Every structure is written in structure tokens, then in C-alpha cells.
């Protein structure tokens, strides 16, 4: 079984810029795990443990969903945390740009994946890019340390990616399927 999820991947330039920002934070913000820049993504839907044999059919389903959407532009905006503000679980970068197009794409993917037996999550969709996990500092965490990522980071979204998680590898996420958005839409 492979642990799969559907995501929007960042461009190499956007990942490098966000990674440079994260590198500046590392000495000041004690998180146990910093995400490798090649692993930066915006999750569209988590699928979980799935038979490897299903990857072709899921990629075909994602291609059908992606064909209903035109490419769009996203960027990075602000930073925040999930979990207790003094000891957060996740440090994230927020999303700006055509977030409505991203939300529509996400709804299409969830609807399509439901036909393959994947149950939609009950919680609202909150797109973000995970930068680090599990704060472990001796001092209380403060957003004053983090500030905001550079606002000039943006990229064009042309595809959805089906990722496999390789828990003990770096980078950890492997592309196993690609679904291109339609230029004719």
C-alpha cells in the first residue's frame, strides 16, 4: 500500500525562495522537522493508504477533473501556525492569488475521488504550505520570530500531482501521477 495525496506543486523558483526564507528561520525557531523545499505543496486531497495498482485509474480520474479547469496563479502570503500558539504543531505559509480557482479545483478533485471510494473530509478546506512541524523549543513560540515570507513568491499552476509518501526519504514525496489543467477551458 502506498500513502497517496493529491496536491498542487510549487514551481522550483517558488520552492527555492520559500526554502531560503525557512533557512533564515531555522536558527530562531526550534521545530523538530523542516520540510524539504522540493516537498513544498498545497494539499488538495489526502487519499491515504492505497493499492499501488490504483495509481493509473486515479491519475485518469484526476486528469478528467483537471481538464475542467484553466491554469491559474498562486502566491505566498503571510505565515501562521496550527496548534497551540505557544507550542505549535505546524508552521505554514498562506496562499494568495486565485484562491477561488484553487477552491473550485479542490471541490472537483474531491467529487471525482469520491467516485473511487475516497470519503471527503468533514473539515473546511484550508490551503497552505507546511514549512515545519512540531515546535520543540525551550522558550514559548512567538510569531514575532517568524514574520512573513517574501510576498514576491508566486507561480502558475498548470497541473495536479499525485504524490506517494516515502517516510524515511529526503525529499519525502514522490510524483506518481500528473494531471494537466486545460489550456482550452
From TrEMBL:
Coiled-coil boundaries: none
Active site, UniProt feature: 41 (proton donor), 128 (proton acceptor)
Reactions listed under catalytic activity: a 3'-end 2',3'-cyclophospho-ribonucleotide-RNA + H2O = a 3'-end 2'-phospho-ribonucleotide-RNA + H(+)
Short sequence motif named HXTX 2, residue ranges: 128-131
Domain of life: Bacteria
Positions occupied by motif HXTX 1: 41-44
EC number(s) per entry: 3.1.4.58
EC top class named in words: hydrolase
Alphabetized GO MF terms: ligase activity
Keywords: Hydrolase, Ligase
Family membership: Belongs to the 2H phosphoesterase superfamily. ThpR family.
Function: Hydrolyzes RNA 2',3'-cyclic phosphodiester to an RNA 2'-phosphomonoester.
Name listed for the protein in its UniProt record: RNA 2',3'-cyclic phosphodiesterase
Organism for this UniProt entry: Paenibacillus ihbetae
Amino acid at each position: 500500500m502506498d500513502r497517496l495525496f493529491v496536491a498542487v506543486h510549487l514551481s522550483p523558483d517558488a520552492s527555492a525562495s520559500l526554502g531560503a526564507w525557512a533557512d533564515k528561520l531555522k536558527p530562531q525557531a526550534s521545530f523538530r522537522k523542516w520540510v524539504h523545499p522540493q516537498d513544498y505543496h498545497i494539499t488538495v486531497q489526502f487519499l491515504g493508504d492505497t493499492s499501488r495498482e490504483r495509481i493509473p485509474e486515479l491519475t485518469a480520474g484526476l486528469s478528467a477533473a483537471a481538464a475542467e479547469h484553466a491554469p491559474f496563479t498562486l502566491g505566498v502570503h503571510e505565515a501562521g501556525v496550527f496548534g497551540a500558539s505557544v507550542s505549535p504543531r505546524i508552521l505554514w505559509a498562506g496562499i494568495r492569488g486565485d484562491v477561488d480557482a484553487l477552491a473550485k479545483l479542490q471541490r472537483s478533485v474531491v467529487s471525482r475521488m469520491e467516485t473511487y471510494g475516497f470519503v471527503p473530509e468533514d473539515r473546511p478546506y484550508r490551503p497552505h504550505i507546511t514549512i515545519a512541524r512540531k515546535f520543540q523549543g525551550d522558550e514559548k513560540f512567538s510569531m514575532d520570530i517568524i514574520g512573513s515570507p517574501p510576498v514576491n513568491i508566486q507561480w502558475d499552476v498548470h497541473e495536479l500531482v499525485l504524490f506517494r509518501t516515502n517516510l524515511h526519504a529526503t525529499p519525502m514525496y514522490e510524483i506518481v501521477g500528473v494531471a494537466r489543467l486545460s489550456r482550452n477551458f
